[in-house]
Amino acid sequence: MGKFDPIYSVFETDEQAEAHDQWFRAQVEAALTSSEPDVSHTQMKSEIRAIIEKHRGA
C-alpha cells in the first residue's frame, strides 16, 4: 500500500478512514434521532460569543 497523501486524506490507512466514517455516521444518526430540544443558530452564536468573551478577559 502506498503512502497516503495528506492532500488526499488525513488518515494513514483505509482502516482509519473507515473507522472515522463509521463514527461520523453514528454521530449524525444520534443527532437526527435525538429528543433533545433544538438550539437556534442565533442562540448558539450568543452562547459561543459569551464563552469567547469570558476567556478573552481571563
Describe the structure.
- The chain has helices at 14-33, 41-56.
- The radius of gyration is 18 Å and the shape is flat.
- The protein is built from two helices and no strands.
- It has a domain at 1-34.
- The N and C termini lie far apart (49 Å).
- The model has no long low-confidence stretch (mean pLDDT 89).
- Helix content is 62%, strand content 0%.
- By secondary structure, it is mainly α.
- The longest helix is centred in the middle third of the chain and has 20 residues, at 14-33.
Write the layout of secondary structure elements.
Layout: H1 14-33, H2 41-56
Helix content: 55-70%
Uncertain regions spanning at least 5 consecutive residues: none
**Structural class by SSE content:** mainly alpha
Q: Kindly provide the radius of gyration, computed on alpha-carbon positions and rounded to a whole number of angstroms.
A: 18 Å
Number of strands: 0
* Total of helices: 2
- The gross shape turns out to be flat
> What is the CA–CA distance across the termini?
49 Å
Strand content: under 5%
- Average pLDDT, to the nearest integer? 89
Descriptors for this entry?
single chain; mainly alpha; flat; 2 helices; 58 residues
Please outline what is shown here.
By secondary structure, this protein is mostly helical. It has a domain at 1-34.
